[in-house]
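To illustrate this point, what follows is a protein record of this kind.

___
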Amino acid sequence: MNIFITLDYEIFFGEATKNVDKYLIEPTNRLLNELDKYNKKAVFFIDIGYVIALKKQMHKHVELEENYKAIVTQISEIDDREHEIGLHMHPHWEDCYYDGEKWHMHLSRFKLADYNKEKAKQLFIHYHNELASLVQQKIISYRAGGWCLEPFYHIKDAMEICGIQIDSSVFSNGKSTTKTHHFDYTNYPNETLWSFKEEPKIVNEAGSFIEIPITSHTVKPTIYWKVLYDRIFNKKKQVGKGKSTKPSKIEALKKLFFSTTDVLSIDNYKANLLIASVEKYFLEHKKNVCIIGHPKCFSNETFLQLERLLQFSIKKNAPIKMLRQLVTTNVLEMKNN
C-alpha cells in the first residue's frame, strides 16, 4: 500500500486570519520537523490566491506585507526540503479585501465554475505562474478549492498549458450542493488511482491526466456531537482556528444523525479516526491511500496520529510517496502495488 500525505496550505475565516504565524506558519513548521524525523515527504497544495491577495494589498498595510514575507519564505523552505508543491485554488480571493483590521470575505465566486470558461482559464494560468515563480520545482499536481473540480472542461485546456498532469480533488461518494460548493462524485470510479482524458469520471488508460482521489471513509455521528459539545462548552482548546465555509443545514443534520462519507483527514477531531481506517485499508489490500490535512486546523492530536502513521508506514512497509512519483514511475505499477 502506498500512502500520500497531502496538505492544503491555506488560511481564511475566523481567528486564524489575524495570526498567520500561529495558525499557519507554526503548525507547518512543526509538521515539517516531524516529517524530517522520519525522512518522509508530503504534498503541499498552496492556496496561491491568498498569496496574490496579500501581494496586491500589502502596500497599504504593514501586517499584510509581514504575512506575505512569512508565507513566501515558508513556501521556499518547503521547496528546499524537497516536498512536493501543488497548485490549490480558492478564487474567492479575487473579491476579498482587507480594511486594516480584518478581511472582508465575498464568496459569490468561491469556485472556478462561478466564472465563465475563458476567465477561469485565465485565472488558472495566472495562479499557476505566480506559484511557479516562487519555487524551483515544476508544478504538476492540482487540487480544486472546496473539492469543486466540476465542470472539468472549464480548466482542461489551462491544465494542459501549465503542464498539470495530476488531480487530487475527487473523493469517493462525495457530494455537496451549497451556495459555495457544488460537486457530485457518487458516480466516479471506485478506484484509488486512474487515468482520464476528457472527464475525470471516465477511466481512459490512454488519457494524459491522472486522478489520485482523496481517500474517503464512513464517519459516525458521534464525532460531530463531540465537536458540537466541545464548541458549546469550550472543552477543546488545543485546536487550529482556521475555518472554512459552513455546510448547509441539511448536510449538518445528516452528519449529526446519520453515518456520512468524509475525507480521510488528520485535522483536529478527525485525526482520531486516521489509524483505524488506514489499518482497515491495509488489511483490505487497498493499493493507495491519500490523506488530507490543513495546517490551519491542526491540533496536538494531529501530531500524535501523524507519528503513529509514520511508524505504521515503516512497520508495514507501506511507503509514503509524493504525487509527482506517479509520473516518474510506472503508473500501472502504482495501481497494482
Observations:
- Residues 2-336 form a domain with the TIM Barrel fold (CATH 3.20.20.370).
